[in-house]
Amino acid sequence: MSDTEDLGDHTDAVPAIPAATVVIFRRDPHDGASQLLMVERSAAMRFAGGAAVFPGGRIDPADYELAARVGGALDPLDAAARIAAIRETLEETGLVLGVSTRVTAGDAAAARAMLLEHGALAPVIEAFGWTLDLDALVPFARWLPRHRNMKAFDTHFYLADIGTGAVDIEVDATENRHLFWASAQQALDLAVEGRIRIIFPTRRNLERLALYPTFQSCRDHALSTPLVTITPHIVDRDGEPWLMIPDNAGYPYHGEPAANVQRG
Questions:
Q1: Cα angle, residue 231 at apex, residues 226 and 237 outer, rounded to 5°
Q2: What is the largest CA-CA distance in the chain?
Q3: What is the spatial distance between Cα 102 and Cα 6, in angstroms, rounded to a whole number?
Q4: What letter would DSSP give residue 246?
Q5: Which among 44, 90, 180, 228 has the fewest CB atoms less than 10 Å away?
Protein backbone atom coordinates (compact mmCIF):
# COMPACT_ATOMS: atom_id res chain seq x y z
CA MET A 1 0.00 0.00 0.00
CA SER A 2 1.28 3.47 -0.85
CA ASP A 3 1.48 6.32 1.67
CA THR A 4 -1.29 8.10 -0.22
CA GLU A 5 -3.64 5.12 0.12
CA ASP A 6 -3.02 5.02 3.88
CA LEU A 7 -3.98 8.69 4.36
CA GLY A 8 -7.74 8.25 3.94
CA ASP A 9 -10.56 7.46 6.33
CA HIS A 10 -10.33 3.68 6.85
CA THR A 11 -12.90 1.55 8.67
CA ASP A 12 -10.10 -0.92 9.52
CA ALA A 13 -7.86 1.79 10.94
CA VAL A 14 -5.42 1.27 13.79
CA PRO A 15 -7.13 2.44 17.03
CA ALA A 16 -6.24 6.04 17.78
CA ILE A 17 -4.46 7.02 21.01
CA PRO A 18 -6.25 9.75 23.03
CA ALA A 19 -4.07 12.87 23.18
CA ALA A 20 -4.18 16.60 23.86
CA THR A 21 -2.30 19.64 22.63
CA VAL A 22 -2.48 23.33 23.43
CA VAL A 23 -1.95 26.46 21.36
CA ILE A 24 -0.27 28.87 23.79
CA PHE A 25 -0.56 32.60 23.10
CA ARG A 26 1.64 35.32 24.52
CA ARG A 27 2.14 39.00 23.77
CA ASP A 28 5.57 39.76 22.36
CA PRO A 29 7.47 41.66 25.09
CA HIS A 30 8.83 44.08 22.47
CA ASP A 31 5.80 45.12 20.44
CA GLY A 32 2.82 43.40 22.08
CA ALA A 33 1.95 41.32 18.99
CA SER A 34 0.47 37.88 19.58
CA GLN A 35 2.78 34.90 19.25
CA LEU A 36 2.35 31.15 19.58
CA LEU A 37 4.70 28.65 21.22
CA MET A 38 6.03 26.01 18.82
CA VAL A 39 7.99 22.90 19.80
CA GLU A 40 10.43 21.35 17.33
CA ARG A 41 10.50 17.63 18.01
CA SER A 42 13.62 15.52 18.07
CA ALA A 43 14.37 13.90 14.73
CA ALA A 44 14.62 10.58 16.56
CA MET A 45 10.94 10.60 17.59
CA ARG A 46 8.78 8.09 15.72
CA PHE A 47 5.80 10.43 15.50
CA ALA A 48 6.38 13.82 13.83
CA GLY A 49 10.15 13.52 14.22
CA GLY A 50 11.81 16.84 13.34
CA ALA A 51 8.46 18.62 12.90
CA ALA A 52 7.36 21.86 14.58
CA VAL A 53 4.16 21.24 16.56
CA PHE A 54 2.25 22.64 19.52
CA PRO A 55 3.05 21.27 23.01
CA GLY A 56 1.13 18.13 23.91
CA GLY A 57 1.04 14.37 24.11
CA ARG A 58 -1.02 11.34 25.01
CA ILE A 59 -3.58 11.26 27.83
CA ASP A 60 -2.23 9.10 30.66
CA PRO A 61 -4.27 7.00 33.14
CA ALA A 62 -3.33 9.43 35.93
CA ASP A 63 -4.90 12.27 33.93
CA TYR A 64 -8.25 10.44 33.96
CA GLU A 65 -7.91 9.82 37.71
CA LEU A 66 -7.28 13.50 38.42
CA ALA A 67 -10.08 14.52 36.04
CA ALA A 68 -12.54 12.37 37.99
CA ARG A 69 -11.68 14.42 41.10
CA VAL A 70 -11.54 17.95 39.70
CA GLY A 71 -13.34 17.87 36.35
CA GLY A 72 -16.68 19.07 37.68
CA ALA A 73 -19.35 19.24 34.98
CA LEU A 74 -16.89 18.72 32.13
CA ASP A 75 -17.10 15.56 30.04
CA PRO A 76 -14.59 13.13 31.62
CA LEU A 77 -12.56 12.78 28.41
CA ASP A 78 -12.51 16.56 27.90
CA ALA A 79 -11.37 17.10 31.50
CA ALA A 80 -8.64 14.46 31.18
CA ALA A 81 -7.49 16.00 27.90
CA ARG A 82 -7.18 19.45 29.50
CA ILE A 83 -5.16 17.98 32.35
CA ALA A 84 -2.93 16.17 29.87
CA ALA A 85 -2.37 19.43 27.99
CA ILE A 86 -1.38 21.19 31.23
CA ARG A 87 0.90 18.34 32.26
CA GLU A 88 2.60 17.96 28.89
CA THR A 89 3.16 21.71 28.62
CA LEU A 90 4.89 21.81 32.00
CA GLU A 91 6.98 18.77 31.11
CA GLU A 92 7.99 19.95 27.62
CA THR A 93 8.41 23.68 28.16
CA GLY A 94 8.42 24.54 31.88
CA LEU A 95 5.28 26.69 31.55
CA VAL A 96 2.50 26.35 34.11
CA LEU A 97 -0.95 26.65 32.57
CA GLY A 98 -4.42 26.25 33.95
CA VAL A 99 -3.91 27.09 37.61
CA SER A 100 -5.79 29.81 39.45
CA THR A 101 -2.79 31.35 41.24
CA ARG A 102 0.19 33.29 39.94
CA VAL A 103 3.25 31.05 39.64
CA THR A 104 6.82 32.27 40.03
CA ALA A 105 9.59 31.10 37.74
CA GLY A 106 11.19 29.32 40.68
CA ASP A 107 8.02 27.41 41.53
CA ALA A 108 7.53 26.50 37.86
CA ALA A 109 11.03 25.03 37.69
CA ALA A 110 10.52 23.09 40.92
CA ALA A 111 7.13 21.86 39.74
CA ARG A 112 8.62 20.64 36.49
CA ALA A 113 11.32 18.71 38.35
CA MET A 114 8.68 17.11 40.57
CA LEU A 115 6.54 16.21 37.55
CA LEU A 116 9.49 14.53 35.86
CA GLU A 117 10.10 12.56 39.06
CA HIS A 118 6.50 11.44 39.64
CA GLY A 119 5.17 11.37 36.08
CA ALA A 120 1.77 12.69 37.15
CA LEU A 121 0.28 16.13 37.74
CA ALA A 122 -1.73 15.41 40.90
CA PRO A 123 1.28 15.24 43.30
CA VAL A 124 2.58 18.53 41.87
CA ILE A 125 -0.75 20.32 42.33
CA GLU A 126 -1.03 19.04 45.89
CA ALA A 127 2.56 19.90 46.84
CA PHE A 128 2.28 23.51 45.66
CA GLY A 129 -1.28 24.05 46.86
CA TRP A 130 -2.47 24.99 43.39
CA THR A 131 -6.06 24.83 42.20
CA LEU A 132 -6.62 23.79 38.59
CA ASP A 133 -8.62 26.17 36.40
CA LEU A 134 -9.58 23.90 33.52
CA ASP A 135 -11.77 26.62 32.01
CA ALA A 136 -8.57 28.52 31.19
CA LEU A 137 -8.15 26.05 28.32
CA VAL A 138 -10.58 26.75 25.48
CA PRO A 139 -11.58 23.88 23.14
CA PHE A 140 -10.43 24.65 19.59
CA ALA A 141 -10.48 21.45 17.54
CA ARG A 142 -10.46 17.67 17.61
CA TRP A 143 -8.52 15.66 15.00
CA LEU A 144 -9.03 11.93 14.56
CA PRO A 145 -7.05 10.48 11.63
CA ARG A 146 -7.84 6.91 10.63
CA HIS A 147 -4.72 5.26 9.18
CA ARG A 148 -4.29 1.57 8.50
CA ASN A 149 -0.53 1.26 8.93
CA MET A 150 0.50 4.24 11.02
CA LYS A 151 0.03 5.27 14.65
CA ALA A 152 -2.76 7.84 14.94
CA PHE A 153 -3.79 10.16 17.76
CA ASP A 154 -7.29 11.30 18.69
CA THR A 155 -6.08 14.80 19.56
CA HIS A 156 -8.02 17.45 21.45
CA PHE A 157 -6.71 20.96 20.68
CA TYR A 158 -7.07 23.79 23.20
CA LEU A 159 -6.20 27.49 23.36
CA ALA A 160 -4.50 29.16 26.34
CA ASP A 161 -3.11 32.63 27.02
CA ILE A 162 -0.18 33.49 29.26
CA GLY A 163 -0.43 37.23 28.61
CA THR A 164 2.94 38.85 29.10
CA GLY A 165 5.96 37.49 27.28
CA ALA A 166 8.11 37.66 30.41
CA VAL A 167 8.32 33.89 30.92
CA ASP A 168 11.06 31.30 31.09
CA ILE A 169 10.89 28.28 28.79
CA GLU A 170 13.37 25.46 28.49
CA VAL A 171 13.37 22.62 26.01
CA ASP A 172 12.83 19.05 27.14
CA ALA A 173 15.84 17.53 25.42
CA THR A 174 14.47 13.97 25.50
CA GLU A 175 11.65 14.55 23.00
CA ASN A 176 12.26 18.06 21.65
CA ARG A 177 15.23 20.02 20.39
CA HIS A 178 14.02 23.60 20.09
CA LEU A 179 11.28 25.94 21.34
CA PHE A 180 10.35 29.18 19.63
CA TRP A 181 7.68 31.88 19.58
CA ALA A 182 6.14 33.02 16.29
CA SER A 183 2.87 34.29 14.94
CA ALA A 184 0.82 31.75 13.02
CA GLN A 185 1.69 33.47 9.74
CA GLN A 186 5.38 33.59 10.63
CA ALA A 187 5.34 29.84 11.30
CA LEU A 188 3.68 29.22 7.94
CA ASP A 189 6.30 31.41 6.26
CA LEU A 190 9.11 29.47 7.97
CA ALA A 191 7.64 26.27 6.57
CA VAL A 192 7.47 27.72 3.05
CA GLU A 193 11.13 28.75 3.38
CA GLY A 194 12.05 25.23 4.48
CA ARG A 195 13.29 26.39 7.87
CA ILE A 196 10.79 24.24 9.75
CA ARG A 197 8.70 21.20 8.83
CA ILE A 198 4.99 21.08 9.65
CA ILE A 199 2.64 18.12 9.29
CA PHE A 200 -0.84 18.31 7.76
CA PRO A 201 -2.87 19.03 10.95
CA THR A 202 -0.41 21.69 12.12
CA ARG A 203 -0.54 23.45 8.74
CA ARG A 204 -4.34 23.52 8.70
CA ASN A 205 -4.46 24.79 12.28
CA LEU A 206 -1.86 27.50 11.66
CA GLU A 207 -3.87 28.67 8.63
CA ARG A 208 -6.94 28.94 10.83
CA LEU A 209 -5.08 30.66 13.67
CA ALA A 210 -3.57 33.19 11.24
CA LEU A 211 -7.07 34.61 10.69
CA TYR A 212 -7.28 35.78 14.31
CA PRO A 213 -4.50 38.13 15.43
CA THR A 214 -5.18 38.00 19.19
CA PHE A 215 -6.05 35.39 21.77
CA GLN A 216 -9.39 37.07 22.44
CA SER A 217 -10.44 37.07 18.79
CA CYS A 218 -9.36 33.44 18.41
CA ARG A 219 -11.16 32.48 21.62
CA ASP A 220 -14.35 34.18 20.44
CA HIS A 221 -14.10 32.35 17.12
CA ALA A 222 -13.53 28.99 18.83
CA LEU A 223 -16.46 29.42 21.20
CA SER A 224 -18.81 30.39 18.36
CA THR A 225 -17.75 27.57 16.01
CA PRO A 226 -19.24 24.09 16.46
CA LEU A 227 -16.58 21.56 17.42
CA VAL A 228 -16.40 19.04 14.58
CA THR A 229 -14.28 15.90 14.86
CA ILE A 230 -11.95 16.12 11.88
CA THR A 231 -11.05 12.92 10.06
CA PRO A 232 -9.07 13.70 6.90
CA HIS A 233 -10.18 11.84 3.80
CA ILE A 234 -9.01 11.41 0.21
CA VAL A 235 -10.94 12.87 -2.73
CA ASP A 236 -10.13 12.81 -6.42
CA ARG A 237 -9.55 16.15 -8.13
CA ASP A 238 -9.00 15.80 -11.87
CA GLY A 239 -7.27 12.48 -11.38
CA GLU A 240 -5.08 13.70 -8.48
CA PRO A 241 -5.71 12.53 -4.89
CA TRP A 242 -6.17 15.34 -2.36
CA LEU A 243 -6.24 14.98 1.42
CA MET A 244 -9.24 16.95 2.65
CA ILE A 245 -10.99 17.94 5.89
CA PRO A 246 -14.65 18.92 6.44
CA ASP A 247 -15.63 22.38 5.21
CA ASN A 248 -17.77 23.19 8.27
CA ALA A 249 -15.09 23.16 10.97
CA GLY A 250 -13.88 26.77 10.80
CA TYR A 251 -10.82 26.27 8.58
CA PRO A 252 -10.02 28.56 5.63
CA TYR A 253 -8.32 25.83 3.57
CA HIS A 254 -9.67 22.32 3.43
CA GLY A 255 -6.85 20.30 1.91
CA GLU A 256 -3.89 19.89 -0.37
CA PRO A 257 -2.56 17.36 -2.89
CA ALA A 258 -1.81 14.13 -1.05
CA ALA A 259 1.64 14.03 -2.63
CA ASN A 260 2.52 17.28 -0.80
CA VAL A 261 1.35 16.14 2.63
CA GLN A 262 3.95 16.02 5.39
CA ARG A 263 3.13 13.03 7.56
CA GLY A 264 3.98 12.27 11.15
A1: 110
A2: 60
A3: 46
A4: -
A5: 44
